[in-house]
């Protein structure tokens, strides 16, 4: 067990992660780099790498039950659906795998829009990654539906929920909102949003690609109709996962090939699934679950996320203090936010800062990270700012390296 234990008497400190032990599981950390680009994609632990290799090393064919190779593929898919169901608080039969979260959103937008008519409305936010904006804008344009935009306040980085409420009408068909901003870390008030959205009978689509790496997600508790995420943001391989109520999926008719399965969720999975990546996804969920304690995998995941949040909070505070001491502008200001910090240094281009950090072996890129509307709304145009994101393998030495490297910029 890698986690620190509660011990002693009196009020218990929140349990944290044993970061030193975690770091030993990530071969990429032996490169000596300090990784702050988790929001772009985390590094991969050995059990995930081994699970991918094992899937490809064992007999493997298309899914079926007739021979061991088919049965291996079948088992891999079942295991991955069960793992992601635990990860996202969903029924396994409502878990859909796709190429990426972007691909899933584009495909589902096309499918959902078949039911939309001119004058229907969709709501998107400027806080979102473009992967949860453009699919809805394009789908709306195609059928003559109206797009309503919700802003965030650059001074607080908070989504304007009142504006969201004012954007809703009986014609609203879908509201697409971020689980957490991949640029600023802001976590909007999903429960309030769900209440408002469902009051007008619309669907709530939550892009949890950034959130799923930091917060324990339960789609039903979140009251979202659909949640999407991408395992490569939480130690897994590169693919996308969608979680929805199976009853919602049963009512949708996507484009599909004639001989492919018409059952849910297979109906939505185009072509052959990437079995080796699914095996890696299960291993990533199991790896994260093993960082916590509890009677079953969902309970261990909940505990692991609690520990991770406690560890990341300490490091985020250290990072933000260090940045402020150096006169940085920190754009990540929301009351509830992930450990992803967007910043600029006075008088310096963000890209120069990022390159200066890279010269010291610190990976913290600059950009808008496809949250292009958010970047523009912050006044950062399309070049954005520097993003430093913490992951469960980040330690205090990494944070100090980043801060010291800032003192040493050319
Ligand atoms: C918040 C958010 N949404 C969507 C995406 C797109 O995910 P994918 O790469 O799986 O398409 C990202 C990727 O960075 C993201 O951070």
Name its key features:
410 residues, alpha/beta, 7-stranded mixed β-sheet, 14 helices, 39% helix, disordered N terminus, binds pyridoxal-5'-phosphate
Strand content: 5-15%
Major beta-sheet overview: 7 strands, mixed
- What spatial form do the alpha-carbon principal axes imply? globular
Rg over alpha carbons: 21 Å
Strand ordering within the main sheet: 2-10-9-8-7-3-4
- Please give the alpha-carbon distance between the first and last residues: 43 Å
Give the topology string: H per helix, E per strand: HEHHEHEHEEEHEHEHEEHHHEEHEEHEH
Say how many strands there are.
Answer: 15
> Which class best fits the helix and strand makeup?
alpha/beta
* Unique ligands: pyridoxal-5'-phosphate
The share of residues in helices is 25-40%
Compute the average pLDDT. Answer: 96
Detailed description of the structure:
The chain has 410 residues and is an alpha/beta fold. The chain has 14 helices and 15 strands. The protein has helices at 19-23, 46-57, 68-88, 101-113, 134-143, 161-167, 190-199, 219-222, 246-250, 275-289, 297-325, 350-359, 372-377, 396-407; strands spanning 34-35, 95-98, 121-125, 146-150, 152-153, 158-159, 172-178, 203-207, 226-229, 240-244, 329-330, 340-344, 362-363, 366-367, 385-389. The strands form four sheets. Strands 2-10-9-8-7-3-4 form a seven-stranded mixed sheet, with helices on both faces. Helix 3 packs across helix 10 (275-289), helix 4 (101-113) runs parallel beside helix 5 (134-143) and helix 10 (275-289) packs across helix 11. Mean pLDDT is 96; it is low at 1-8. Bound molecules: pyridoxal-5'-phosphate. Pyridoxal-5'-phosphate (PLP) is lined by residues 100-102, 129, 131-132, 178, 182, 207, 209-210, 230, 240.
